[in-house]
Specification:
single chain; 270 residues; mainly alpha; Rhomboid-like fold; elongated; disordered N terminus; membrane; transmembrane; Peptidase S54 rhomboid domain-containing protein; Peptidase_S54_rhomboid_dom; Rhomboid-like_sf
Length: 270
């Protein structure tokens, strides 16, 4: 196989571009960069066309369910969001592999989409860009490594608690009630997904741990036909030899003598 697409294990990248290893996190980050380029070329209307809010489903704009992560604009905070997504996502991917990381990101997307859709039945809300996916990936990383140190030696769990509190206070300040309900629902769903792909193993109370592969009880090994035939030949040969010991060779009929010869030759050939 070529060096461009080498044989891969779960911890290997999908492919390599020179020295750049392209795993799931890098591939998603690259698509976000491309969405920035598209935003610069096509203008701000692109984000409005790709973003998702539940009210548009009634008009048949189903594609927004899938395109909202790429409703990005270019600026300082989007760049920081992408950097943190790459940084923390790469560390999670190094632990669980590129395939499970892909499923984790799909699960995060689905969790956010479901949460906003459900809450959207009562409150206006929406999803635009990689920001919320990055936020969830960061919180999963914090839950996986709660005692790791951030800036000024602050434990990760304290940093995560502050981030969630800021989200809540901001929503309260703007009287934006949709995130107040969609955020906890999203956290629950993302935790289930993370547990399912092999993360958050220290939290036994979170359901959804990956099931162990079923092992069938070992079947009783039956001797094959060759073994059965060999055993039968030996038993018959022993029977004929016993008769020779008792009555001598003349005690066997001509047919039994021929059988004795064939049995001896067949057993020697094996």
């Amino acid at each position: 196989m070529s060096s461009f697409f080498p044989a891969r294990g779960s911890a290997d990248p999908w492919f390599r571009l020179g020295r750049l290893e392209v795993g799931t996190t890098v591939a998603v980050a690259a698509t976000v960069v491309m969405s920035w380029i598209a935003w610069v070329v096509l203008g701000g209307g692109l984000g409005a066309a790709l973003g998702y809010y539940p009210a548009v489903l009634g008009s048949g704009q189903i594609w927004r369910l899938f395109t909202w992560p790429w409703a990005n604009s270019l600026g300082l905070w989007p760049v920081l969001n992408l950097f943190f997504f790459w940084y923390f996502g790469s560390e999670l991917e190094a632990q669980i592999g590129r395939v499970k990381m892909a499923w984790l990101l799909v699960g995060v997307w689905a969790s956010l989409t479901v949460a906003v859709s459900v809450v959207g039945l009562a409150f206006d809300g929406g999803l635009f860009g990689i920001g919320m996916i990055q936020f969830m990936v960061l919180l999963v990383w914090i839950a996986e490594y709660p005692t790791r140190r951030f800036f000024f030696a602050i434990p990760a769990w304290v940093f995560g608690l502050v981030l969630v509190a800021l989200q809540i206070f901001e929503s309260l300040g703007y009287r934006d009630f949709a995130p107040l309900f969609s955020l906890p629902l999203s956290l629950v769903l993302v935790a289930l997904v993370a547990r399912r792909v092999g993360l958050l193993t220290d939290y036994a109370w979170i359901p959804g741990a990956p099931g162990r592969p079923r092992t069938r009880p070992a079947a009783r090994r039956r001797p094959d036909r060759e073994q059965q035939r060999r055993t039968s030949d030996r038993a018959r040969l022993d029977e004929l030899l016993d008769r020779i010991n008792e009555t001598g060779l003349h005690g066997l009929s001509d047919a039994e003598k021929r059988e004795l010869k064939k049995l001896s030759e067949r057993l020697r050939a094996r």
